[in-house]
């Protein structure tokens, strides 16, 4: 199927315009062979390229382009299908925007088009061209340094606890993972993640539990979470626990149970955030919002987890506004390379800023993901890059330190 990819990238320093022309000539041989056509724009700093052809070929050429050392911060802007090529002449022309008059440059680009209709009507590819040529969205270009420009240096503040004995409590354990502000070198809070006694996942813990038993086990497990938090001397930190949204609906008196366990362990509700997964929240929003009222009245904070991964999206925020939104790995993964992920995360950030909702990113694994998110305005992170979840303890945090000039 005729497939289109558009990307934008930043030229490396020390690349001459002359060598660019050679590069295009070499690329043309390959493109011709693969039946890939398109157009390449250059504005002195950024490349903007449209590739079109059979899906496999376009993907394979794009993959090679991503590896090319002559540019960096390659961001995929569009991946789409079309009935015909927009720029179907053989080869890939290099179009230097600086050589043309500002007013006429877009028309000059379009004159190279070979498709009769697509470039006239509201074609998304055309809109991307217009935006690039007119440079109207430059504020969204975050040029991040290479991953190697940071060292991640573990501190020596790991802690663990072994013996947490809680009478007749659910048979479970917890792993703890800090949420940090890397530049402030500060732990913001610590999340308690449910585990089976031997350290298996929450899914393993809930396996076989159905109906009310599932919610009861979810609630009961928090007895252990609070006891462990207390044994780990988390008293000075905020920390968070996860709950199925329906746990508060299905178990009457759940909030009082939580309050009692918190008090027994010398904690206060004001230091605790309860996290709910978005997709589970929206199915019974009315019941859920009344539970939220109870939690808030008791002094807890509320976070929405996995934000953006469910169905409700931003419109969930018309129903109620949590104290925090946690953007999950599904959206974070390779955000530095993906136009759609960047746009969605920027929208979430903007929306949360208007509503004074804190935003954090979870599941950050790569330095580039972290750097992009920092540039976009997020400053609180959880992820393997900084600290992995640790069964019955907290692992050392690896704090980023900028290397001296490479
Ligand atoms: P969550 O609340 O979003 O928790 C973060 C999950 O991301 C954890 O998975 C954690 O191990 C994982 N994670 C953290 N950093 C990274 C990273 O850099 N890369 C990747 N790939 N993963 C990372 P975990 O512990 O398996 O928990 C999965 C989900 O289970 C949680 O997602 C939460 O929604 C749910 N859960 C955890 N504890 C409880 C609980 O006590 N009750 C209920 N109902 N659900 C829980
Ligand atoms: Mn969570
Ligand atoms: Mn998760």
Summarize the structure.
Residues 2-93 form the BLUF domain. The protein has 406 residues and is of the alpha/beta class. The protein has helices at 17-34, 55-67, 105-111, 124-134, 202-206, 211-231, 245-250, 254-264, 278-281, 285-298, 316-319, 329-332, 339-354, 367-376; strands spanning 2-11, 37-42, 46-54, 71-81, 92-96, 150-154, 159-160, 173-181, 186-195, 238-242, 272-277, 301-307, 324-327, 358-362, 381-382, 389-391, 393-394, 398-402.
How would you describe this structure to a colleague?
The structure is a single chain. The chain has helices at 17-34, 55-67, 105-111, 124-134, 202-206, 211-231, 245-250, 254-264, 278-281, 285-298, 316-319, 329-332, 339-354, 367-376, and strands at residues 2-11, 37-42, 46-54, 71-81, 92-96, 150-154, 159-160, 173-181, 186-195, 238-242, 272-277, 301-307, 324-327, 358-362, 381-382, 389-391, 393-394, 398-402. It is an alpha/beta fold. It has an eleven-stranded mixed beta sheet. Strands 4-1-3-2-5 form a five-stranded mixed beta sheet, with helices on both faces. A two-stranded antiparallel sheet has the order 6-18. α11 (316-319) links the parallel β12 (301-307) and β13. α6 packs parallel to α8. The structure holds ligand C2E and manganese (II) ion (MN) (2 copies). One manganese (II) ion binds next to loops. Residues 2-93 form the BLUF domain. Pfam families: BLUF, EAL.
Q: For the record, what CATH class of the largest domain applies?
A: Alpha Beta
> How many structural units, i.e. domains?
2
User: Helix proportion of residues, in percent?
Assistant: 25-40%
Largest sheet: 11 strands, mixed
Structural class: alpha/beta
């Amino acid at each position: 199927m005729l497939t289109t990819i558009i990307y934008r990238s930043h030229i490396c320093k020390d690349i001459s315009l002359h060598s660019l022309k050679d590069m295009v000539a070499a690329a043309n041989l390959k493109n011709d062979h693969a039946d890939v056509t398109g157009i390449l724009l250059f504005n002195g700093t950024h490349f903007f390229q449209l590739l079109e052809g059979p899906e496999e070929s376009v993907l394979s050429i794009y993959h090679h382009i991503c590896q090319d050392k002559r540019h960096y911060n390659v961001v995929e802007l569009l991946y789409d299908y079309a009935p015909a090529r927009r720029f179907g002449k053989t080869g890939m022309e290099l179009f230097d925007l600086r050589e043309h008059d500002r007013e006429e440059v877009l028309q000059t680009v379009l004159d190279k088009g070979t498709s009769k209709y697509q470039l006239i009507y509201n074609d998304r590819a055309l809109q991307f061209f217009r935006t690039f040529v007119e440079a109207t969205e430059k504020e969204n270009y975050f040029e991040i340094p290479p991953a190697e420009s940071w060292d991640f240096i573990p501190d020596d503040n790991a802690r663990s606890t072994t013996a947490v004995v809680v009478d007749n409590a659910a048979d479970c354990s917890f792993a703890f993972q800090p949420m940090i502000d890397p530049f402030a070198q500060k732990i913001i809070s610590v999340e308690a993640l449910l585990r089976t006694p031997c350290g298996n996942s929450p899914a393993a813990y809930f396996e076989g539990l159905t109906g009310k038993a599932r919610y009861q086990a979810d609630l009961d497990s928090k007895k252990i979470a609070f006891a462990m938090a207390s044994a780990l001397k988390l008293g000075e930190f905020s920390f968070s626990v996860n709950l199925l949204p329906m746990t508060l609906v299905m178990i009457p008196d759940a909030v009082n149970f939580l309050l009692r366990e918190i008090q027994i362990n010398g904690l206060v509700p004001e230091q605790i955030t309860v996290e709910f997964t978005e997709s589970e929240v929206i199915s019974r929003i009315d019941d859920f919002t009344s539970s939220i009222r109870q939690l808030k009245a008791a002094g807890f904070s509320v976070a929405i987890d996995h934000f953006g991964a469910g169905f409700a999206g931003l419109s969930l925020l018309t129903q109620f506004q949590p104290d925090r939104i946690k953007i999950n790995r599904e959206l974070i993964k390779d955000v530095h390379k993906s136009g759609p992920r960047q746009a969605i995360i920027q929208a979430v950030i903007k929306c949360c800023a208007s509503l004074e909702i804190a935003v954090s990113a979870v599941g950050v694994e790569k330095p580039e993901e972290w750097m992009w998110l920092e540039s976009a305005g997020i400053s609180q992170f959880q992820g393997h890059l900084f600290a992995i979840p640790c069964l019955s303890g907290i692992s050392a945090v690896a704090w980023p330190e900028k290397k001296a000039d490479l």
